[in-house]
Each structure stands twice: as structure tokens, then as C-alpha cells.
Specification:
The protein is 21% helix and 29% strand. Strands 16, 17, 20, 21, 23, 24 and 25 form a seven-stranded mixed β-sheet that branches. It folds into three domains: 20-111, Immunoglobulin-like, CATH 2.60.40; 118-253, C2 domain (Immunoglobulin-like), CATH 2.60.40.150; 258-485, Rossmann fold. The protein has helices at residues 176-180, 211-215, 229-234, 248-254, 290-302, 343-357, 367-377, 400-410, 429-436, 460-473, 475-485; strands at residues 20-29, 37-44, 51-56, 72-76, 84-90, 104-111, 118-121, 123-126, 139-146, 152-157, 172-175, 187-194, 202-210, 222-225, 243-246, 258-266, 310-316, 318-320, 325-327, 330-331, 340-342, 359-360, 385-393, 415-421, 445-449. Helix 5 (290-302) packs across helix 10. With 508 residues, the protein is an alpha+beta fold. Belongs to the copine family. InterPro entries: C2_dom, C2_domain_sf, C2B_Copine, Copine, Copine_C, VWF_A, vWFA_dom_sf. It comes from Mastacembelus armatus.
């Protein structure tokens, strides 16, 4: 909100230079009634003492504690007495009760930094808590910057996205001065709410960050866990109330692209006899084997981006019943016409059943399963679908020349390849990738040795979380690089839901 008038009566012959500019923020508590409210600021002239309207906040509906996003930015003169008057107005009068206190107004002022930058940001949510009894949630975000006294000042609100647990909010532009007043490491708190018509918005959760961290989302992407402290204190197994992603292109594209996830598992004899505890495929009644851990760790995260949760699951390097033929591209569920499994749990079940029916053999050929997925990816050229292939193997690639060619060809397609090496075998994915990276159209293949993520204390959950984080970290950049190289731009976002009487978003 810019100045509408000067605080003092302007005299060009005797004008003084303001010492600085200050930003005035208003918070009002315990208003006696629930009606649309606005606060008007008046300034008093130095000479005639007349009160003139300087500006007004946005209108806020239905709340006892209106927290105004709109700010008043004033010239501050050290040598002058500058009187201000704040009028809090309701569309319907309070019908006041004599002697009854109708509310408290708190005025906070902060000297403004000379920072003139603005930043464009966008957020999307994933698996937020369901708050509406007959629906999902109507989420919106509220941004606060921290103050020196430990309090927080509101600086932005997004629009409401109706009836979804996976919202995509519209991109917005905000002055960096409003977010952090030029201090890139100042704490910024972001709260997530479920909008209610009566103003009693339900708190979903919150997280803290900084402008320095948020700004990385313009070139990479940031994922934040939304945490409700009360729920976390009451529930031992509570993880979060959903996640938020900060990256404009990623938010636009992921919301409009179908992610197709395929698993391929190594059934070569070098893994050892599945009946023996020394085997990488050993099915212990007490804990997951390394194949199952890698599959569950990566799959349980990426499945949230696959709308139908039906995953093709393939195996390679085994002899199949009934004739003992060797296959490097077979369906784990035994149905080559329909290799789809229902969710990661379905994939795990098909994997366990395959171990009981096939004979581990060899060699370790990757190219057949890569080409399998590539055939489907090659048929999609409009950016509406993207394919992710997870290959879990115990080590050295046998068909290196063919695999090299397959990966290079796949780099032209809407497809990413994740190769996770399990077991003690040497698996130098970095040098392997380097040897053919010059031929890539783009980087679309990730190599990860699982042993690097094993927690020394034996905490398998932590091991799986570390693996999933690093394995999936490159997927967004690979996804966006494909969209950019093909010149595919996201389709316009659908118009957001806007509560009656409220603007889509409030600019400062």
C-alpha cells in the first residue's frame, strides 16, 4: 500500500528530508462482533491540525481477530511529532454496550530497508490433512515475517483453493522487503489453514523457512513438512499434516502431468539363494531385505504423484516356469498382458510371489526393461505424461553397450531412470554415468548405491528415508529439463475459488 498523502503539510520552500520510512502493521484482538471490517489510518497536518485519510486496509470478513495484510508505509521525521489515528470500521455497527470494551488494536512499526527486489513464488501442497466433514479441505496459506521481539507480522495471504488435499496456489509477486525487510536469513513462518465460511478457519499446520531458502525454489525446488505441533505432541506416530513444494514450474507441471511409475527388479543368481539368509532376496519374517527396503522407500513417495496407483512391475535375469526360458523383461504378477500391480503393497506382494516361482539366473541386462518403458514414453509428446523407471540391482551391468544406447535414447523422452545398487558389490554409478554423459540430450539417469545410506545404528526407517530423499532429489530437475528442451509450457491454472467478498489475493 503506497502513501496517499504526506504526513505533514507539504511546504516546498521548507520541506525536510524524511529520516527513513516505517511500515505500520495492525493487529486487532477480541472485537465484539463478527462482521466485515476495515481499518482506516488518518494523519494530522502540522499547521491546521486537520485529520486526513492516509490509507485503509483490505476488508476482512468474519473473524474476532482480524490480521490485516495491508500495510501503511510512512515517511518518518525524527524532529516532528506525527499524530496518527486509526479507525476500525464494521459494515454493521457494533450496537455497543455501554462501558463494554469492544476490542484491542496493536500497532507495530519497523524501519524499512532500502531493498527494492520483488520475488515471484508459487506453492503446491501434497496430502494435506482433511478438515471438512463432507469434503476434503479448502486450504490457503498465510505468510509471516519474524520481529526482533519474537513476534510475527503477517505479510501475505494466498487465495483459497476449494475442496482438495493437493492444492496448487496461483503464483504471486511480493516485495522482498515485505517478506524479510532485506534480511535474507530472517525467519519466515508459513501457516496452512482450511477456510471456513464463518471465519473460524481450521489450522492444518505450519513450517518455518527464510527468504534465502525460499529463493532456491526458483532454480530448484523446496519440500517442506507441514506440522501441527498439537497433533505431534499427542500422537507418537505422527509425521506431518502434509507437505508443501515451493517451485513455480514444478508446481504448474506436476499438477497437470500424469506420472507413470515402473519397477524393475534384478533376479540374477549373483543375489544368492533366496532361501538362505545371506541372499539379498532372503525373505526374513523379522525385517525387509534390501530389495524390499529400496522398493518401499522410493515407491511410497513417488506413488503419491501417480493418480491411479497402478504400477507395472518387471523382473529380469531369471528362468521362468514352466519351460525354464530366460527372460529379462517379465511381469512380476505373471501376467505379461497386464503387469500392473495395485500400489506399492501390490508390487511387494508380486515380488515375493515371483521369488517362489522363478529361478534366479542371469546375466544382468538392463536394456530390455529400459526399452520396455521407453516404448510407452515415446508415444507421449505433449507433456501430459512422464515416466519414472526404478531399477534395483545387485551390481555390474552385463549389457553395458546396449544399456548405454538405451539410456542415451531415453534422454530424449519424457522419462527418468533411477538405478539403485544393493549389496556389497562395487557400484560406481558416478563414473559409469560420466562415461556417456556427453551424449545425453539431458541428464535423465540417477545411480545410487544403497550401502551409502545404511544407518550405522541399524535404523532401517532412517536408511530408507535417506535413500528416498537422494534418489528422488533429481527427478524434478529432470522432469523440468525435459519440458524445457521440448518447449512445453504449463497450461493455464484453473481459476481458484474465492470466498464471497474477499479479493483473490492481497498485494502489499
Amino acid at each position: 500500500m503506497e502513501n496517499m498523502a504526506s504526513i505533514g503539510d507539504f511546504d516546498p520552500l521548507n520541506a525536510t528530508i524524511p529520516a527513513t520510512k516505517v511500515e505500520i502493521t495492525l493487529m486487532i484482538f477480541n472485537v465484539f462482533c463478527l462482521f466485515p471490517a476495515v481499518c482506516v489510518l488518518y494523519t494530522q497536518g502540522m499547521g491546521n491540525k486537520e485529520w486526513r485519510e492516509f490509507g485503509r486496509t483490505e476488508v476482512i470478513d468474519n473473524t474476532l481477530n482480524p490480521d490485516f495484510v495491508g500495510k501503511f508505509i510512512l515517511d518518518y521525521f525524527f524532529e516532528e511529532r506525527q499524530n496518527l489515528r486509526f479507525d476500525f470500521r464494521l459494515e454493521k455497527s457494533l450496537g455497543g454496550i455501554p462501558g463494554k470494551k469492544c476490542g484491542t488494536i496493536i500497532v507495530k512499526a519497523e524501519e524499512l530497508n532500502n531493498c527494492r527486489e520483488s520475488v515471484m513464488m508459487q506453492f503446491c501442497g501434497n496430502k494435506l490433512d482433511k478438515k471438512d466433514f463432507f469434503g476434503k479441505s479448502d486450504p490457503f496459506l498465510v505468510f509471516y515475517r519474524s520481529n526482533e521481539d519474537g513476534t510475527f507480522t503477517i505479510c501475505h495471504k494466498t487465495e483459497v483453493v476449494k475442496n482438495t488435499l493437493n492444492p496448487v496456489w496461483q503464483a504471486f509477486k511480493i516485495p522482498v522487503r515485505a517478506l524479510c525487510n532485506g534480511d535474507y536469513d530472517r525467519t519466515i513462518k508459513i501457516e496452512v489453514y482450511d477456510w471456513d465460511r464463518d471465519g473460524s478457519h481450521d489450522f492444518i499446520g505450519e513450517f518455518s523457512t527464510s527468504y534465502r531458502e525460499l529463493s532456491r525454489g526458483q532454480s530448484q525446488f523446496n519440500v517442506y513438512e507441514v506440522v501441527n505441533p498439537k497433533k505431534k505432541g499427542k500422537k507418537k506416530k505422527y509425521l506431518n499434516s502434509g507437505t508443501l513444494i515451493n517451485e513455480s514450474s514444478l508446481c504448474f507441471c506436476l499438477s497437470r502431468t500424469q506420472i507413470n511409475f515402473t519397477v524393475a527388479i534384478d533376479f540374477t543368481a549373483s543375489n544368492g539363494n533366496p532361501a538362505q539368509p545371506t541372499s539379498l532376496h532372503y525373505m526374513s519374517p523379522y525385517q525387509l531385505n534390501t530389495y524390499a527396503m529400496a522398493l518401499k522407500a522410493v515407491g511410497e513417495i513417488i506413488q503419491d504423484y501417480d493418480s491411479d496407483k497402478m504400477f507395472p512391475a518387471l523382473g529380469f535375469g531369471a528362468k521362468l516356469p514352466p519351460d525354464g526360458r530366460v527372460s529379462h523383461e517379465f511381469a512380476l504378477n505373471g501376467n505379461p498382458q497386464n503387469p500392473y500391480c495395485a500400489g506399492i503393497d501390490g508390487v511387494m506382494e508380486a515380488y515375493y510371489q515371483s521369488l517362489k516361482s522363478v529361478q534366479l539366473y542371469g546375466p544382468t541386462n538392463f536394456s530390455p526393461v529400459i526399452n520396455h518403458v521407453a516404448r510407452y514414453a515415446a508415444s507421449v509428446k505433449d507433456g501430459s505424461q512422464y515416466f519414472v523407471l526404478l531399477i534395483i540391482t545387485d551390481g555390474v551391468i552385463s549389457d553395458m553397450a546396449q544399456t548405454k544406447e538405451s539410456i542415451v535414447n531415453a534422454s530424449c523422452l519424457p522419462m527418468s531412470i533411477i538405478i539403485v545398487g544393493v549389496g556389497p558389490a562395487e557400484f560406481d554409478g558416478k563414473s559409469t554415468r560420466t562415461c556417456w554423459s556427453r551424449l545425453y540430450v539431458r541428464n535423465s539417469c540417477s545411480f545410487v548405491p544403497f550401502r551409502d545410506y545404511i544407518d550405522r545404528t541399524g535404523n532401517h526407517i532412517l536408511s530408507m528415508a535417506r535413500l528416498a530423499k537422494d534418489v528422488l532429489a533429481e527427478i524434478p530437475d529432470q522432469f523440468l529439463s525435459y519440458m524445457r528442451t521440448r518447449g512445453i509450457k504449463p497450461s493455464p491454472a484453473p481459476p481458484p475459488y474465492t470466498p464471497p467478498g474477499q479479493p483473490i489475493q492481497t498485494q502489499i
